Amino acid sequence: MPDYKWYAVQSKPGQAERAEQELRNQGFEVFLPLITVEKLQRGKRVEKIEPLFPGYLFIELSELASNWRPIRSTRGVARILTFGDKPAIVPDDVIELLRDSLKHAADQPSLEPNQTVRIASGPFNNLNAVFVEYDGEKRAFLMLELLGQWQRLSLPLNAINPG
């Protein structure tokens, strides 16, 4: 059985999805990590799906059994990343970690403004709060009633449970 390894492929600007599809059409095993990001467009927040590493994707190849020649002439592909004159190998555990992280991120429920949440850790553990908005990718602004007054605080998303 040939020894397959993962390699990083640089795509042409803005063509990572095209490179992925073209490589798949040729029968290659390809991994393009995608994430959902919130962006402002014309003053409104919209969710967009973008590559985690803009301009890069991963391909699984065997040094002996795979035909590497068509890769560099594939639409959307700029080149295979190299270390010196050898293609740079991406360890299998890095690919698995990326896949697991993206799966876990997709499993996390999205929060809506004014939604009641429960704080799951830290000094405010087990207190209810109201979600206001996201504070970057990993934090959220909450309103918490303390001593009869509402306080605005920012907590990590992993410290918050919906409802």
UniProtKB/TrEMBL annotation:
Pfam families: NusG (PF02357)
Keyword Repeat on entry: no
Domain spans labelled NusG-like N-terminal: 3-102
Stored InterPro entries: NGN-like_dom, NGN_dom_sf, NusG-like, Transcription_antiterm_RfaH, Translation_prot_SH3-like_sf
Keyword NAD: no
GO biological process, one term: DNA-templated transcription elongation
Keyword entries, A-Z: Transcription, Transcription antitermination, Transcription regulation
SUPFAM superfamilies named in the record: N-utilization substance G protein NusG, N-terminal domain (SSF82679), Translation proteins SH3-like domain (SSF50104)
GO cellular component, one term: cytosol
SMART domains: NGN
Name of the protein in question: Transcriptional antiterminator RfaH
The species this protein was found in: Marinobacterium halophilum
